[in-house]
Amino acid sequence: DCPGKEGTGGRKRNLTLLRNKLYMGQRRRTEPVVESTAAAAGDHGNLRRSQSDRTEYSQKLQEKMAPQAMSSTPATPPQEDEEEEEEVRRRMMARRVKIIAELTQTEKDYISDLDLCIKEVIQPLRNKQIARFDVDGLFSNIELVHQLSAKLLSSLEEATTDVEPPMQIIGEVFLQIKGPLEDTYKIYCYHHDDAHTMLEYYEKDEELKQHLRECVQSLK
User: Which residue stretches belong to region Disordered (predicted)?
Assistant: First the structure.
């Protein structure tokens, strides 16, 4: 009942209440820090597991691909490489020799056909001296074509006969005869359509057609 005593009790209650408030405030400030720290630790742990997973996957991938890489590119001894390269060169040289021989044989066959045409068709028709038959107009400069082809064949044979395959150079032959070939066949091709029209006209004339038939029979 004493004012002094009542004042002292009130101050104690106030101190107790203040102490409780301070404790609760301190707790509220501390709990987020603890939770944040724990969360950060958890994220860090997840990050470390993610990196670990990637590292493990990378290692497994390398192990899986390593045998395939080794099998796809097997180590070949140098001697086997040299033997394989030599075999490739040998096959290429054999193919080149075959192509050159085919070019030469084709030119021989072509010249043989021209020989028959000149001997069995052109010359007999000229000898008959048929007034309505233009032999030169029909066959154009085919005799000049024959001469040029004979020259080409001779040059090819000279470049390949008794010459080792690696030393057979036929490109130079075609370069040297390029100009004459162009000039000669330019004339032949220019008159080709006129000669075809002329032949169709001659085949409608029975007398002239008979002369052509005799020439064809001689060729056969």
Answer: 1-88
CB 184 within 8 A of CB 127: no
- 177 and 151 in contact (C-beta within 8 Å)? yes
If you count them, how many residues does the chain have?
220
User: Which residue bears the tokens 């603890």?
Assistant: 34
Question: Rounded CA gap, 212 and 218, in Å?
Answer: 10
Distance, CA of 8 to CA of 73 (rounded, Å):
96
Contact 149/107 with Cβ under 8 angstroms?
yes
What's residue 49's pLDDT? Answer: 39
Residue 137 lies in a domain: yes
Domain membership of residue 91 (yes or no) is: yes
Task: Read off the CATH number of the domain in which 168 is found.
Answer: 1.20.900.10
Indicate the number of domains in the chain. 1
Q: Which of 25-29, 78-82, 185-189 has the highest mean pLDDT?
A: 185-189
Domain that holds residue 138: 80-218
Whether residue 41 is contained in a domain is answered as: no
